[in-house]
What does this fold into?
Amino acid sequence: MTATCGEPVHKRRLIRAGGLLDAAGTEVAPGVVLVESDRVAAAGTPESIGSVPDAEIVDRTGELLVPGLVNAHCHLDLSGPGPWPPAGGDYRGWVGRVRSLRAEASEAQVRRAVRRGIALSLAGGTSCIGDIAGEPPAASIEELRRSPLQGTAFVECFGIGSGQPSSIERMLGQLSGCPADEAGVRVGVSPHAPYSCGPDVFAAAASTGRQLSTHLAETKGEADLLLLGSGPLREMLEKDIGVWNEGVRIPWGTETGMPRAASPVARVVAAMSGTGALCAHMNYLGHDDVDCCVAAGIRLVYCPRASASFGHAPPAVDPHPWLALREAGLTVCLGTDSLLCLDTPERISVLDDMRLLYRRDGVDPMILLEMATIAGADALEIPRAAVSLGPSVAGLVAVRSSATTPVGMLANALAHDGPPSWAVQPTSL
Ligand SMILES: [Zn+2]
It folds into this structure.
C-alpha cells in the first residue's frame, strides 16, 4: 500500500495485552505494544505508551506476550514423518530407523522435511534455532536462510579411528562450500557424538573457530564405549553400521595424552575447552563432571521431552543434573531434539519442554523463561536483545492465560496445553 505521494504507508498497530514478560526485567500487566513496520517500536504500561492516533487496535487482553523462543538443539531434516512412538530403551533400534530414513531420502525430500520443520517451529513460537543440518548440509542451510528463523546450522560429521581423516576432509569441504554467516544464520560444526567421532574429528572441528555442537552423555552405554570399548554402542558401531576399526583407541582421547583416570565426559569436554560448545542431553554425569564442564566452558542444551522419550528420566533414573550445572554457573538452555521424539505433532517448541519441567519438576516459571530465551541466545551467541522486549526483539509470542500478574500468567500458560500464536511475527534478517 502506498500513500498518494508515493511514500510507503507503514501501518501502526497498538496491541493491548494482558501482560508483557521477558527474562531481562520487563514485567507489566496489563501491557501495550506499539508495532510499526512489523517491528516493536515501544512496549510498556498503557500509561507509558499513551494513545496513538491512526493505530489499529489489536485486542490480546486474555494473553501474555513473551519474546520468541530459542530452540538450541533440533534436527529439522527429520521433520518428514510425524512423531514416532517413544523409543524407550531401544536406542540402537531407533538409530537404525533414523539411518534408514536418511538413506532413503532424496535432496528434494530433505528440503521438504526442513521446510516442514521450519513451519512447525514457527507454529511453536520459535524465533531462534540451533539446527543440526541433515545431508546435504547446504540444502538445510539454504532452507533455513530463506526462513524468518535466525541462529546456527551445524554441519554434522561422523568418523572414528581410521575413518577420521576422511571425515575431517569432508567437513572442511562442506564448510568451504557455503557462506559462514548470511541471512541471520551462521554455519557451525557438529561432531555428532564422542562414540561416533574420534578425538581428531573434535580437534579439527574446534580448530575451525566455528560454533560447535555435539551430543554428550546421552545414554548410559556411552561411558562403557569410551572407557572400555564395549557395550551396546560398540555392537551398534560394529554390527549395524560397520564403522568400528582397529584405529580406534580406548579409552577415548588416549592418544591426546588424556590421563587414564579421567571420566568419559571430562575427556570429551577437554577436547572442546574454550570453544563454548553446545552439548545436547548430558543425561548421565559422574561425580566430578560438573567441575570439568564449568572449567571447559561448554553449554548444556537440555532436551527434557527427548530425554523422557528414551527413558532417561525419573523414576527410571536419577533426576537430570541440569540444575547443578546451572547453579555452578554453566549456561543451560533448552532444545527439543527432532520431531520424531516429541509428543506434539502440530509444533516443534521448547514451550512444551518448559511445560514438562513446570508440571513434572515444579521448576520456577521465570527460570524456564530465562532458559528458553536469553540462555538460548547466549548459547547460540545471538544478542540478548533478540529475545528481550524492545526494538530488536525477533518476534513476540502470545500464550492464553486466565491469571492477572505477568508471572502468574506464564505459570497458568505452562499449566495448560494451548498453542502459542504470534502477536508480532519474526521477520527475515
Ligand atoms: Zn540431537
Summary: The radius of gyration is 22 Å.
